[in-house]
Amino acid sequence: MVFTWKIVEELKGKLFACALAATAVMLSAILRLNTLFQPNSFDVLSWTIVYYCLVCFINRNDNRFLVWAAVAGGFGILNKYSILFLLAGLFLALLISPERKMLWRRQTLFAIFLGFLIILPNLVWQIQHGLPVVHHMKELADTQLVNVNRGDFLKEQLLYFLGCCWLFLFAAYGFIKNPDLKPFRWIGYSYLITLGLFLYLQAKGYYAIGLYPVLLAVGSVQVEKALSVGRWTYLRPVLYASLIAFFIPFIKIAFPVLTPEEIHANDSMYRDLGLLRWEDGKDHTLPQDFADMVGWKELAHKVDSNYALLSGSGYTLVLTDNYGQAGAINYYSKTPGMHAVSMNADYINWIPYDADIRNVILVQESSDDDPERTRERSFFQSVNFGGEITNPWARETGTRIYSCVGALKSIGKILKEEAAERKW
Length: 424
What we know:
about 10% strand; single chain; 5-stranded mixed β-sheet; 3 domains; globular; alpha/beta; about 55% helix
């Protein structure tokens, strides 16, 4: 919101335009994004800062803003690689606009080098570990993006900003007709190019949310200009109030305000808006983000109970099936010093392979094909069922917990060998 406000000021917008843009940002899908335990919030912030810095550079010809844009882009990459699509879109947009001359400045090359230095540790880490990002992207494409419908992607762009989408029309009109906005047409080009890249690659709809704060800023500046004379000025409070009024009915739908039972009783409106469609391309009982979170506390509580029974019998490792389970346990656990890990995603690099692991608390999804834990029974003195997620509304209902007690072999060595196979 702050950087959107600052973009409006750079575009010569006054208080009404600033307030309109900031409110539009807040009363949109961005607010929902900030309620979830995900890296997407910082992602949108990084995109907005990059746009702000470039707008400032065009206005002031101050090379410091190129440096700050590189810093924002660098840290954005460290957070989430999706900002690379924005940077690609910006490069092509500037290349086809009169502002292309900024690309060949010595200061621009220095800024790019600085951004490279920021991401270099991550790049080195990726190379040292066999480029796990490539494996992750392939898995993402095969299991999730393959289910993305391009028509739904475009529909979601409208849905995310339904109450303020009219500002995008004003932004488009401003780029075409407003001479003050002519130097910033590259913003519109970058939006179209980046959106086109996402569309071609069948990306998820929310990947593109970072493109919109700057468009809301441009649209608000154009609205203020259009309503700056005569009786048109009286429409300003009406338009501002409409943002709030239109958003209110969506609070119960977009945010976890209703109970799972209430959502299920009114599932038609969720289904019509596509909110029940999960990454597998099918409709389910609850929105996926909500179903993901249901059962987290129950899982952590039951892992704590199993862990307490093993205290005093040597080092106990908590090993989960996926990073969501590990994160939920680490967040909600009441046991000091206990940290869950997983063979999934980056957690695979945080497993204490060299520790003298005597016991393992194993968290396995309900779809696991070996509920008797035949393999683990050859590694431990005993394997005991320690409970499961019973909440019927949880995405992972039936996820089981096992206590594997008294290691007969080097568990760290076995896990290290398995991790080496999984990384490739």
